[in-house]
Amino acid sequence: MKRIALAAAAGLLLAPLTACGGDAAGADGSTVTVTVGYQSKTINTVTAGTLLRSLGYFEKQLNSLGDGRTYKVDWQDYATGAPITAQMTAGKIDIGSMGDFPLLINAARGKQLNRPTHLVSVTGYNLRGGLNTIVTAPDSKLTSLKDLKGKKVSTSVGSAADGTLVRALQRAGIDPNDGIDKLNQQPAVGASALAAGSADALSQFVAWPGLLTYQGRAKALYDGAQLNLPTFHGVTAREDFAKNRPAVLEAFLKAQAEATDYLDTHPVAAAERVAKATGLPAEVVYLYNGAHGISTFDPAVKPQLVSALKQDVSVLKAAELTGDIDVDSFVDDHYVKKALGASYAKQLAAVPPAAASETWPKGAQETKAFASPAKLLAYVAAHPGGIRAAYVPDATTGTLWFADKALWVADGDKLVPFVAPATAQAYVFAHAGARVITYAEALERAA
Fold it and tell me: Is 62 strand, coil or helix?
């Protein structure tokens, strides 16, 4: 039954479509409409979507082309990458952004329908895999992946979150096709199922795990960064569009780079902008997109990400969602190289900043960074009611998490934070005398 369901899902993703072109020009060719598909609430794509749109950088770049044409941008917002792929291969969307697994399905479908697409840049990424998290209900007794055996787990088949679930279960010795009851659901449906008790756990991508945890509707069971395998989101473009309008695609990539610079130099303001546009709490946006957030942003197509993409193909093939995919022919970074010029090599070699503890004081337009989680806790304890949000990195994976939702370990005078039970327990096991304590106890010790 599971294989039938997966095959049906693949059929829906790969069903042929016909439609008119998305890159529309007026009768005299003087007006050109460029259609961009994005996911406003998948906040790792904001530099090619929500933030970029709010800043107007793409429109400014188009207006500066000076080719005598008038350009209009049609921004189309979707919940996942699948409908963007459907519209792209139907010729209705020119440029789209989505996660790594949907990018592979984008590549497979484009080739199948003779509407090839290409990965042209990267938006947000995490080199260890921290963009995906498995969460449970706040009162759940589940403490490890092994506890999921025989349980109902909600995820979105074909997504990076499903890839994390499959790999995590395999490492735990659980058959992902037989050891659990997998529920193929959209993120919002899965969140409702978790709240209703019809799902025991939820494996999802940004910003759902952080959002549900922030709202007190979930707690982390597994930090995707434990896989130590890169996860990312990127920009894909139709091959015919890129060849016919290379200047337009380069204008988009220049605008994306500008939006990335804005996010890097104004992380709080960027989080507020994205929050206003999406309805997500700014504190959640900042968890992922902040100065030391889970996501790192730059448009460069790093070799580590391409390598991870190749490893992802086997997961989709095993789920019968795609066949073989020629990743090398799908990746085309020459447009972004041209758009960024000399700065491309620098961005390609850039190393993500080290994780750090941060507080966001109420009413402040800047956050405060701390040399250690303990110093952050001391500051929070000294400012009761004055903190909008506090963030700490997992001591093992570096994944940022809300300080009041983290698992804390007391190790002598040290206070050590973790996202999920497994990393906390591994630390306790390796350090004699260390023990898990409550957040309240951690605050008291720090004070």
Answer: helix
